[in-house]
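Q: Hi! First time doing this. I have a protein sequence and I read that you can turn it into a structure. Is that right? Here it is:
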Amino acid sequence: MISIEFLDLSQNHLTRIIPKSLESLVYLKFINLSYNSLHGEIANGGPFQNFTAQSFMMIGDLCGSPQLQVQPCRKENKHLSTKMKLLIKCFLPIIAKISIVLCINFLKQKQHRVDESSKREMVNLETPIRISYYDLPNGTNGFDESNLLGSRSFASVYKAILSNGKIVAVKVFNLDLEEALRSFEIECAIKCNLHHRNLIKIISSCSNDDFKSLIMEYMSNGSLDRWLYSHNYCLDILQRLDIMIDVAAALEYLHHGSSTLVVHCDVKPSNVLLDEDMVAHLSDFGIAKLFGQRQLEIYTKTFASIGYMAPVWCETNITTDKSSLLALKPYIFLDPHDFLANWSTSSSPCNWIGVTCNTRHGRVHSLNLNGMDLRGIISPQLGNLSFLVELDLGNNRFHGHIPKELGQLRRLKLLDLSYNEFDEEVPIWIGDLSIPQYLSLHNNSLNGLIPLSICNLSKLEALDLRANNFIEGNIPIDIGRLKYLKFLGFGKNKLSGIIPQTISNLSSLESLSVSYNTLSGGIPSEIGNLPLLQTMYLSNNQLSGSIPSSIFNSSMLQNIELNENHLSGRLPKNICFGLPKLESFFVYLNDLSGEIPSIWHQCKELVDLELSENKFKRGFMPSDIGNLTNLQFLHLYNSNLEGEIPLFLFNMSSLRRFAIGFNNLYGNLPKQMCRQLPLIEGIEVNGNQLKGNIPKSISNCTHLSELFLNLNSFTGFVP
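A: Yes, that's right. Below is the predicted 3D structure, encoded as C-alpha cells:
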C-alpha cells in the first residue's frame, strides 16, 4: 500500500501501538486513528510531520510532539532541547549578520530615493512644462478605470483634471511592448513638426525609463465612431459634411501642407475626435509613417487600414490578406514563444506560422493560432480575410471585444475562440455568418442571452458555449431548426427554464450537454427519439419528475449523467435492455425510490455506475453487479443497503474504486481481499457495522491510495 494517500481507521476498537512502518507511506496525506485504544509513541517521521491533533483524538495512552496535544515522550525532551540549543548557537550569529546587511541596504536605497527625488525636483524647476508626472495620477484618481476613455494595443487614454481645473486627455503607453516605444517617438516627432486646427493638439509629454505619456486636448464629444454607430447620438447632414471637410483638410495638410510628408495609416471613425463645437480632429498617429523624398517610391506598396484601400483589393489581391494579418500584430501584447516573429512585409503570408493558403486562389484559407499563449485583442482587420474558411484562436489569452467585422467572413466554416478571456455579451452578429459548421466560444466569461440569430445557422454541426458561467435566459425554442447539429454544449452557465421539446428535432445530434445550469421541469421524453445520441449530460440542474423510460430507446447512448437534480420515482427497468453500449450511468443525489433493480448484467460495457445518495428501499445489493466484468467504479454510498458485505466485490478484477459507506452492511472483510483486486485505488466501507480484524492482506493492494474504514467495529491492531 505504498501509494496510499487517505487512511481512516477511526471509531473502531483497535489496540497496541501505531506501527513505525507507517512512516514509509510517503504519499500519505490524511490519517485518522481517533476513538481507538492505541498506546505508545506517535511516529514523527515521514508524513506524520504534517498531521495534526485531529488525527489522534480520544485515543488511549499516546505520547509525541506537543502539536498533537498528547503527553511528551520523556526520552525525547532532553534530546530535542539539546538540538534546539545547538540550532540557536549556530544560527543566531548568521541571522544577526543578515539583519545588519539588510539594514545597510535599506538605508542605501532610501538615500538613493531621496537623491532621485531631488533630481526630479531640479528638473521640474528647470523645465518650462508645468504638468508633472505627479499631476497625472492625481488627476485620474490613480489611472482609475472610471476615467478610462479608451484602450488600444499600445496605449490607454484617460480623462484627467489638473490642479488648475483644466481637463485634458492623457495617453499612457504600454512599455511592455516594443512597438509602443516606437509609437510614442512617432507621436512626439509629429508634435514637433505638425500644427493644424484639425489635428489633435498635444499639450505636453511625460517621459522617463518606466513611464511615457502624452497630454492632449480633451475632446468632450468623443469619437466619430460613437456618433455614427450608437442609437443615442445622431448627426444631421450639415454636421456630417463639416466633419468630412475637417478630415479632408487634415489629410491635405499631412500630405501636402507640411515640410514632412505624413501618411496616417489608420484613418477610421474611432480616430476622429470631436470637440465641444463638433469640429473634427484627427488623432492617434502611433503607426503613421513620416517620409523623406527618397522613401516615397519604396513605401508605395505598404498597406494600412481599410480606409486607404480600394474596394477591389478586398476580393482580388493577396496583399489585402497580408496587410490584414500584419494589422493583428500590433494588437498582440505578448507572444512569449515568438510564433509571429516571421510575420513581416518581406515574406509571403503563406509561409507564416499559423497561416495556410489555398492552392487554387493563393489566398489565406486558414488562420490557426491555437495554443500559442498569445495575449491581446482581436484586430477587426481580420474581417478582410475574404477567403478565410477556418479561424482558430483558441487556448490563448485574447480579451476585449470580439469584433463584429468577423461577421463579414462569408466563407467561414470554423470559428474557435475557446479558452480565452472574452467577457462581453454573446455576439449577435454570429447569426450573420453564412455557412459556419463549427462554432466554439466555450471557457470564456461571456454573458447575456443566447442570440436567437444562432438558430439561423442552418449548416451548423457543433455549437459550444459551455463554461462561460454567465450566459442566462432560456434555451431558444428554435434550436430545433439546426437539423445538422451534432454537438450542443450549453453547460456551466446560468440558463433557466425548461429543456425545449424541439431538441427532439435534432436528428443528427450525438452529444447533448446542458449540465450545471438551473434548468427545471421534466426530462423531455422525446429525447428518446434521437437515434444517434451518444452522450446525455443533464446533471446539476433542478430537473424534477420521473426518469422517462423512453430515453433508453436511443441504442447509441454511451454516457448518461442525471445526477444532482430532483428526480423521483423508480429506476426504469429497461435501462440496460435498450442500451447495449452504455458505459457510464450517474443518478446520484436525487430522490429516487423503490428497490435497486437487478438489471445490470445486461449492461455488459458498463464502466462507471453511481447510484449514491437516493431514497431507495432497504434491501440487498443486486448480485448481478458482480457480472459486470468491465466495471471500474461502483458508488452505492448511503443507498440503504443491508446484509453482509458482498464477496463478489472482491472478485471484480477491473474494479478501481467502490464506495459502499453509510449503509447497514455487517460481517468481516475477506482475509484475501486484495488478491482479486489488482487495480483497486479506493475502498470506502465506513459507516457500516463491520467487525473483526483488519486483514493483513490489505497491504497487497499496491495501488491503493484511499482507504476509509472508520465508523465500524473493527478490533485488533493496525496491520
